Amino acid sequence: MSALHLHYDVSSEDFTRAGEASGQVKKTLKSLGYNSDAIRRVAIAMYEAEINMVIHADGGFCDVDIYPDRVEILLSDKGPGIPDVEKAMQEGYSTAPDNVRSLGFGAGMGLPNIKKYTDEMRIETTIGVGTNLYLTVKV
Amino acid sequence: MIVKDIINILEGEVICEGDLEQEIKTACGSDMMSDVLAFVKDQSVLLTGLVNPQVVRTAEMMDMACIVFVRGKDPDQSIISLAESRGITLMKTRYRMFTACGLLYSNGLSGGTKV
């Protein structure tokens, strides 16, 4: 049973708000007393995923389930899908437009960073339909 | 080193004041936020030439206490408000990135890794 369920809509209209959901989750985990290293891993992984949604997929939603021993996150979008997941997992590979680089992202580190900070990561993606990213972080 | 020492070393101008007594263990200098997010090591200060709200978000996720804008760059109000609400100190220094990092390094602050 989930101890706590959180839902956030991620809008792509305002890049400055990307990270709002991750910040809220971080705050919640802090107030629940989880250890700071685990909280940071959750926050960074979710933040990178949120940025990806805004850059590539016109936003979407996040569902976060907080259990005593783990945090499960689903990030779902109706974007273009990822044509080559293996390539997208390589450090430095990016399909982000140039204007994103001027914002400090698009270095091809998003998915590799997410993988690094999570204990489990699963991508379901269909071209033209969207992407579901499932993350689990043991806390 | 504490935040106050960074202000002194970089002759920084404080834009938004967090906890100036907070201990700073290591630093990170980058304009690419994904590179900052790639290495978690209690890096408590971020030096950057990038000026947008995602700099503050990145610092927030990393539990950083302080952001230094190099080359005297001025953040806008949305950035300042975000930092205020997160208790993060913002400052600017007239030094360029290389020099600012070098000054902190030569005063004993490291990047937290050997490489």
How would you describe the overall organization of this protein?
The complex is a heterodimer of chains A (139) and B (115). Helices cover 36% and strands 27% of the residues of chain A. The longest helix of chain A is centred in the first third of the chain and has 21 residues. Chain A has a five-stranded antiparallel sheet with strand order 1-2-3-5-4, with helices on one face. The two termini of chain A are 16 Å apart. The relative contact order of chain A is 0.20. The mean pLDDT of chain A is 93. With 139 residues, chain A is of the alpha+beta class. With 115 residues, chain B is of the alpha/beta class. Chain B has a single domain, classed as HprK N-terminal domain-like (Udp-n-acetylmuramoylalanyl-d-glutamate--2,6- Diaminopimelate Ligase, Chain: A, domain 1), CATH 3.40.1390. Chain B contains five helices and five strands. A five-stranded mixed sheet of chain B has the order 1-5-4-3-2, sandwiched between helices. The longest helix of chain B is centred in the last third of the chain and has 10 residues. The two termini of chain B are 21 Å apart.
List the defining traits of the structure above.
heterodimer; A: 139 residues; alpha+beta; Heat Shock Protein 90; five-stranded antiparallel sheet; 5 strands; B: 115 residues; alpha/beta; Udp-n-acetylmuramoylalanyl-d-glutamate--2,6- Diaminopimelate Ligase, Chain: A, domain 1; five-stranded mixed sheet; 5 helices; 36% helix; globular
